[in-house]
Amino acid sequence: MSDSGTPVPPVHVLGAGPAGLATAAALQERGIGAVVLEKSDSVGSSWRSHYERLRLHTTRANSALPGLRMPRSYGRWVARADVVRYLERYAAHHRIEVATGVEVSAVERHGDQWVLHANGGRRFSSPAVVIATGYNHTPHLPAWPGRDSFTGELLHACRYRSPAPFDGKDILIVGAGNTGAEIATDLAASGAARVRLAIRTPPHILRRSTLGWPAQRNGIICRRLPVRLVDPLAARLARISVPDLGPYGLPRPETGLYTRAREGAIPVLDVGLIEAVRARRVEPVAAVEAFEEGKVLLSGGETVAPDVVIAATGYRRGLDGLLGGLGVLDDRGRPLRSGPRAHPAAPALYFTGYANPLSGALREIALEAPRIARAISRAIDRGVS
């Protein structure tokens, strides 16, 4: 109810992943009705499609959402399938209303309300909207010259599930982020004949845990510290804990860890890449420049002829079409404001889950959800919507 006693329509949350579910639960905790609109047929759809070996790089204790702990039986590093189970339990535990099969194509401001246009000609009116469609929304495949002429198999990493289909094949993985590093490790430990990892900019590599101390805790500690302090500390820690892979074609990066993180490049947390590179089961090579029928041209002039190219080349947020000309996105399609601060041009429109911080995305989502709920509560009370 509003202050005048008039029923307030529910807040609509787009996306039934961790960010959307956590925000809906936090809204309900404040007595605010919330409906989560999810285009797929289930919660946690992106987690269901990740590769099988995936585990969280953040600890179980620092990955739970508000109001429900992750079971101890999941272990310290929670597996992909257990994340899915947890999200299902979370939605049921908080009795979150999730409308599946609803794909919103446009969000528009009409007077003091938001109007959402969805498939089937449906329209939803809401005093506030939370966009939580995910950091990894739309797979990005670079427009390499000659890409369409490639006679081998080319796929984005989002289509990789397990190493079984690639037994005996020569594989080139493009992109040395966490996804590319883990897929390379997965293939090298299985039946692939050869695994190369194409790298444009050498990544920072950290141990996921050192003497029982998780790297995530360092990220939590360092997040509020200045770059000029964190960069040299991180470099010193890397020299102590991570061997020099330069002789194997993977030199240490020249730019500091926190500097890179602020630019959006999160360190690779090692789950076997270091050992695989040293054993030469994974071969670092130069960046991909172009394709030429059955060949891939690398920077520096080398040419390779893999059977399969797996592009671990990231994602886009996919918000441009949804939000039209609202003026709330930067030139890369990312929200100009996130969390409990709405953009002046779009009152009561909030974004969550669009960061990939050193402290862990799930941890930040858990902290952000009640703040967004509080901001929405105040906006409704003030009649801002």
Widest sheet: strand order?
Answer: 3-2-1-7-22
Oligomer: single chain
- Low-pLDDT parts are none
Count of individual helical segments? 10
In round numbers, the mean pLDDT is: 93
Helix content class: 25-40%
Structural class by SSE content: alpha/beta
Query: Quick one: biggest sheet?
Result: 5 strands, parallel
Radius of gyration: 22 Å
Shape: globular
Q: Into which percentage range does the β-strand content fall?
A: 15-25%
Number of strands: 22
Spatial separation of the terminal alpha carbons: 14 Å
Walk me through the structure.
The chain is an alpha/beta fold and 385 residues long. It is built from ten helices and 22 strands. The strands form seven sheets. The chain has a five-stranded parallel sheet, with helices on one face. A five-stranded parallel sheet has the order 9-20-10-11-16, with helices on one face. Helix 1 links the parallel strand 1 and strand 2. Helix 1 packs across helix 10. The radius of gyration is 22 Å and the shape is globular. The two termini are 14 Å apart.
Topology overview:
Blueprint: E1 11-14, H1 18-29, E2 34-38, H2 45-48, H3 80-93, E3 97-100, E4 104-110, E5 113-118, E6 123-126, E7 129-131, E8 138-139, E9 153-156, E10 170-174, H4 178-188, E11 194-199, E12 205-207, E13 209-210, E14 213-214, H5 215-222, H6 227-241, H7 257-262, E15 268-270, H8 273-278, E16 283-286, E17 288-292, E18 295-298, E19 303-304, E20 308-311, E21 315-316, H9 320-323, E22 349-351, H10 361-382
Parallel strand pairs: 1-2, 1-7, 2-3, 7-22, 9-20, 10-11, 10-20, 11-16, 12-15
Antiparallel strand pairs: 4-5, 5-6, 8-21, 13-14, 17-18, 18-19
